[in-house]
Amino acid sequence: MNKKSIGIIGGSGLYELAGNAQEHSVETPYGIAYVFKSTFTGVDVFFLPRHGKSHHLPPHKINFRANIFALKSMGSQCILSTAAVGSLKESFYPGKFGFVGQFIDHTKNRDDTYFENFTEKIQHTDMTSPYDENINKLLIKVFSELQTPFEGPLTMIVTQGPRFESSAEIKAFKMWGAEIVGMTGYPEVALANELGIPFATLAISTNYAAGISDQPLTHEEVVNQMEKSSVLLQNNIMKFIASF
Ligand code: HPA
Description:
The protein has helices spanning 64-74, 133-145, 167-176, 185-194, 219-243; strands at residues 5-10, 22-28, 31-40, 43-49, 79-87, 97-106, 150-159, 180-182, 199-208. By secondary structure, it is α/β, with parallel strands linked by helices. The protein has a five-stranded mixed β-barrel. Strand 6 (97-106), helix 2 and strand 7 form a beta-alpha-beta unit. Helix 1 crosses helix 4 (185-194) and helix 2 crosses helix 5 (219-243). The chain starts with a strand and ends with a helix. The relative contact order is 0.22. Hypoxanthine is lined by residues 84-86, 159, 164-165, 181-183, 206-207, 209, 217, 222.
């Protein structure tokens, strides 16, 4: 039987997974990606901190195409990405975890496809259900076993950033059906679907989105909540890998 392998994309607050990981710089047709390889409970783990090791890349500067391509070319059978998000609904309070069921793309000018021309083949990828049901089921099982409050499926709107949203934008997004808001969940999901690699997103609520709470939103609030959630996040991901 083939060895199991998984790609994990770390968002804000998740810059390292296993201490013994080896860094690889992976050349792709889209540029270089940096991936940390380790083995945990017999599973090969390819960890990619999307903002870089020291969080130097803002959302709009991330090379999403290189990242997804590199994870696939190193042999990841699926990808679990983590995302710090703002919440548009009361029940998804700061500190709570959830899984994503749908996305709404509100980004601009991001390279979001591998299909640059249709000379060889016309390719339109289905996005009806872009998140993998089996990974989501495993997340639900692991979070329930660890008794960690968990919610989903959530609809995520992805904004361009790096600014936060205005309260009017959040009000409009809510009318569209968005329940959480982040800056990096797109185009990762679309690119993974184009490459046919099962993909899921584990969301961590760090704040109520602009105008949902009556306080102005600050970056410190997001960072502080992420720091509080990060040990639990790491533990649950390790348990997820062990159950994979
Ligand atoms: N908006 C966009 N991205 C975010 C937020 C938010 O409120 N919180 C964490 N990432």
